[in-house]
Amino acid sequence: MSEFKYVLQEREDICGIKKLQDKILEIMVYLDGYFKAHNIKYYLMGGSALGAIRHKGFIPWDDDLDIFIPYRDYLRFLEMSENDGEFDTEKFYLQKERTEELPDYISKVRINGTTLIEEANRNKPNMHQGIFVDIMCLNNAAPTRLGKIKQYICAGLLKARALTKIGYKTDSKKKKIELFISKITVNGPIERFLLHEVRKYNKYETVEKTHLFGRAKFKNSFYLASDFGEPRYVDFETVKLAVPQNAEHYLEERYGEDYMEMPSEETKAIYQSHAFIWDTEKDYKEYINEQI
Predict the structure, then answer these.
(1) To the nearest whole number, what is the mean pLDDT of the chain?
(2) Among residues 208, 205, 225, which one has the least CA distance to residue 148?
(3) Which pLDDT does position 166 carry in this prediction?
């Protein structure tokens, strides 16, 4: 295996997930090379960008990695990786957004021969459930506050509809109502209209960017376009990966001015593990057949 795996496993394994982080990094190293070869911009986002700046790698307890790709490059990547014959389909699997397999509004690249089963997907035997990197579309934001609110609400309805498609369960009465409303209203033309409202500003140059299909609240969902620009490569474990050009300001907007401080145990608990079961050496189909 490559050198970065050995070095990563030598570090203190605080939460017992270094092997998982290692495999995630293997995916990202491949994607970084693919993006460079095809002139596709990407940026580590959210907790992955925070880890790069604060920890020079993964946040110690983090079991995923997320990236932004600007809208046009995002669409180009989805098309190219399926059709250019260069994407390594023997080793990796592209899981595209808005499909029966992945009804959400993000895409994933998974590595074959591994397992990462999330709680919501425990009973989906026909879904590829290998270890993955999340790929988020970075959209242009509306120029007015009212327009941003509309974008945010439209994305919220779409997220709720995606959750109903995967059989998401909740004890919250408020969420149950949201899920019910979305299930009976967000279909066909309505669904396409809502997505158009979220992404329609990509045809213009705008002052701000946004991604509305994650966990960020409204006030933390919009960022200066000038913070992104040309990707800036920084240390991430034993390799270098791309973050926004002004990653520090992006992180301040996303997490607050004290983003470099270690969080409390209460804050850590909010961000629970994505993995119900994970295995870096065993194919997910074996777990589905044997244990789930």
Answers:
(1) 90
(2) 208
(3) 85
Residues 6+ apart with CB under 8 A from 220: 253, 254, 255
Phi and psi, residue 140, nearest 5°: -75, 145
- Is pLDDT of 92 > 50? yes
Cα 31 to chain centroid distance, Å, stands at 14
Residue with tokens 């974008």: 151
What is the token pair recorded at 212?
């509305």
Residue 232 CB coordination number (10 Å): 16
Q: What is the pTM of this model?
A: 0.90
Query: Which backbone phi and psi does 290 adopt, to 5 degrees?
Result: -100, -35
Among 5, 278, 18, 287, smallest CA distance to 132 is for 278
- Find out whether 28 and 242 touch, Cβ atoms under 8 Å: no
Which residues on adjacent β-strands are paired with residue 68?
43, 136
pLDDT category at 167 given cuts 50, 70, 90 is confident
**Amino acid symbol at 290:** E
Residue 246 neighbours by CB under 8 Å, 6+ apart: 224, 226, 227, 228, 229
- The residue written with tokens 């990094």 in the block is 25
Q: How far apart are CA 237 and CA 232, in angstroms?
A: 16
Judge whether 111 and 74 are in contact, CB under 8 Å: no
State how far Cα 109 lies from the chain centre. Answer: 10
Place of tokens 């960022």: 223
| Token pair belonging to 128 | 């590829």
H or E, element range at 69: strand 66-70
Kindly report, residue by residue over 212-262, the tens digit of the pLDDT: 998 899 999 999 999 999 999 999 999 999 999 999 999 999 999 999 998
Helix (H, G, I), strand (E, B) or coil at 36: helix
